[in-house]
Amino acid sequence: MSSKSANEKYALISVFDKTGIVDFAKNLVSLGYRIISTGGTVKTLTENKIPAIPIQKITGNPESFDGRMKTISFQIESGILFDRKNKKHIKEARKLKIKPIDIVVCNFYPFEETIASKNISIDEAIENIDIGGPTMVRAAAKNFKNVIVITDPNDYIEVSEKLKDKTVSEKFKKHLSAKAFDYLSFYDSQIAKYLRTDLFPGKITIAGKKVTDLRYGENPHQKATLYLSSDSSSLGSLRKLWGRELSLINITDINAGIESVRIFDEPCAVVIKHNTPCGIALGKTPEQSLKRAIEADPESAFGGIIVMNKTLDKKSARIIAQFKDKRKGNIDVIAAPRIEKEAFSFLSKVRKSMGIYETGKLPKPSKKTLNVKWIDNGFILQTQDIYSKKDSKAWKTVTKKIPTKKQLEQLRIAWLFITKIKSNSVIVVDKNLPMTRGIGSGQTSRVKSTRIALEQAGNYARGGILASDSFFPFGDCVKLCAKYKIGAIIQRGGSVNDKESIDVANNAGIPMLFTNRRAFWH
């Protein structure tokens, strides 16, 4: 390495996402950097009259194997990796004529976006696995004391300013290095997830992409940020139209609401408080489902979050206004796949602080997606609890009296409702309408849950449907059902005291079904 080349400064630019790269490259050139670049990036730079050295002139090798080999080389990796503070490294670099690459700007082929296409083949996906880019980024991130590594276009302006002012500190370079390793980790995790055949591999990374900072965490003194592991998340397209920014509880409530309504094809609405429904209902129209969901428990609906699985129209918006006018009831957040313009205009005048959000089309639950339960310094992965009509084939009427056709329909709806209500849970569903009338959830005693649900249902318990997300350990729950004149019961079954519950149901003339399947949700 001649004395002239020793004083030259090189920046390597190889980006798929070219947002802001032209202006950044111009800044680097103005600061005396010579740019080494690849393929499409070279073309973009030269078209904008920015001088760039094609990488093959540095490596001495042509771009080969349909682009699989172009950046990986002794010359490039050495130029990034050698330690500028190590005299032996400097002497060796001069002897080998290695050009010092002091800045690496790189982002990768869009693997995540590629595999999001339903028609993508595995061969096409594999061709979008970047190899050279991660190699350069890893090398630069390791050698952060000597090399600036940039993987996020949002950092271009700050880096330019610091380079110009000569204020690039080691702390800042370390910060960029950490971002680069996070970027690598996320990228590799998406590839592993796509190729994985083991449901629960020996080692796994659950990656997240920052979406937004939240208003606060569970409490106002806690900070929180929303991350999503995939763009296909049901919250990935959440869009604010009006009102309050979201807190952690708002997000988890919206998520619980989405989980509750997206399992239904017919219009469904739910009012959520603290991650569990206080009212959930189906209807022939969005308006009807929303009206029923609020009516299910108007007292608890105060300060709640409404989530719907269909477009929120003007008629639905009027239901929310009526709730405020007639019951002095405020709704904190509304979320629906789409909100009609007329409905939005109306709602924005109902309550200024009410958050109005669109979710976009809600995807159905996928068996491919694992459920994560966080524990201290770790997590548990489990498969999703997804109900299908095939599951009802295992249902068994265990009483002398069998349910009517109408009761069977309501029993099915009740069971679907209860799969999204926090355990221990017992609910009462209207005898005719597809809506809850009483919800007893989150209790440590099943008889307490039963009592809460029945007391809340009141007169609607008479002839109604009672569902329990697990078995009744004793006959006391069924005795309460008989007292309130419940019309039919659905529960898991499997208790050592099942006979006691069955005998009570028979004496009261209440048909009871066992699902032989538990529906806990915590």
Average pLDDT over all residues: 93
User: CATH homologous superfamily of the largest domain, by name?
Assistant: Methylglyoxal synthase-like domain
- Straight-line N-to-C gap: 64 Å
Query: Strands across the major sheet, in which order?
Result: 8-13-12-11-9-10
Q: What is the CATH-assigned architecture of the largest domain?
A: 3-Layer(aba) Sandwich
The tally of structural domains comes to 3
Q: Spans with pLDDT under 50 lasting ≥5 residues? A: none
**Rg over C-alpha atoms, rounded to the nearest angstrom:** 30 Å
- Globally, the shape reads elongated
Written description of the protein model:
This protein has 522 residues and is an alpha/beta fold. The chain folds into 3 domains: 3-195, Methylglyoxal synthase-like domain (Rossmann fold); 209-358, AICAR transformylase, duplication domain (Cytidine Deaminase, domain 2); 392-514, AICAR transformylase, duplication domain (Cytidine Deaminase, domain 2, 3-Layer(aba) Sandwich), CATH 3.40.140.20. Helix 5 (74-81) runs parallel beside helix 9 (132-142). It starts with a helix and ends in an 8-residue tail after the last strand. The model has no long low-confidence stretch (mean pLDDT 93).
